[in-house]
Amino acid sequence: MTSDAxxxxxxxxxxxxxxxxxxxxxxxxxxxDTAAGTLTVQEVPVPRPGAGEVVVKVAACxxxxxxxxxxxxxxxxxxxxxxxxxxxSGVVAAVGDGTELWKVGDRVVLGAGKACGTxxxxxxxxxxxxxxxxxxxxxxxxGAWAEYVRTDATTLIAVPDSVPLEHAAVLADAxxxxxxxxxxxxxxxxESVGIWGLGGLGTHLVQLTRICGASPIVALDPLPAAxxxxxxxxxxxxxxxxxxxxxxxxxxxxxGKGLDAAFDCVGRAPSFTQAERALGHRGRLVLxxxxxxxxxVGPEIHxxxxxxxxxxxxxxxxxxxxxxxxxxARGRLDISGSVSAILPLEEVHEGIRRLREREGxxxxxxLRP
Length: 369
Ligand SMILES: [Zn+2]
Ligand SMILES: [Zn+2]
What we know:
With 369 residues, this protein is α/β, with parallel strands linked by helices.
């Protein structure tokens, strides 16, 4: 492990008041005990930046489905106790040695991964984008459901004053992961797309494929409210995947050709099968949602003759996050409707409940520590 394994600073330090670096001694943080399965807001020491690191005062941090997976024990714990939260924005509060690009007061959004430094890709200078053993914030090192978070200087993207920090936090993962999926699909303008599942990922895919010039855009979800939202955000058609004429409608909408690209944000066997069958010649199906379902592509001859591609997608690269800050700053991308609620850190359990129960069909519930 890297510097994250060092013990929390001593009680003597914690009572010493503000140090020379301007950071307070302690802060509030939501700490998840992976063995006990408990999440509690505690007073803990503020992390100090080591060489190449910065400490960011957190402005906002999202609550994501993968946080729930960690809290539910579906993701193997990397640390006995960890601060969750990997969708964060804030203001640089302290910089370590060798971080000349950043200064105290800079507005930033945080990429959620840092390079391991030792895998073959890292040894050949690949860095965060190609690391084979990416260290993920909130899983391998403490995340941002806290007043301060420590991270590598390489994980920061500058946020101009015109972009609210709450919007910047939504860009990290909830928008950047679907944006990366468009890259994975090698989508070109005027190609037809189908988007299965209109939660946070799928709803943002509607907006992003629209920006990228997809035509037509077909959005699919069993919830009428999710379909209406997709139409308002730029989908040309919205279908209920459970309707028996949906496969025929997909053919008709694409003038018999089938889809050029499909995005499965559900990741279950029925959505996969329907999306794969809807692909046209040289169609690509990108899997974004996650489930343990076994998947089957149907008749081999159909898959081969039609030159179909099925591709798994996860996460995003730093340039994706930078692109999205640019698109938001220029007003091309408006994600103001994606901030479903902003809660104080103490109400983290309420935020988790709203996401679990899909109360009000939230896109992103944010914490403001
Ligand atoms: Zn996330
Ligand atoms: Zn590496």
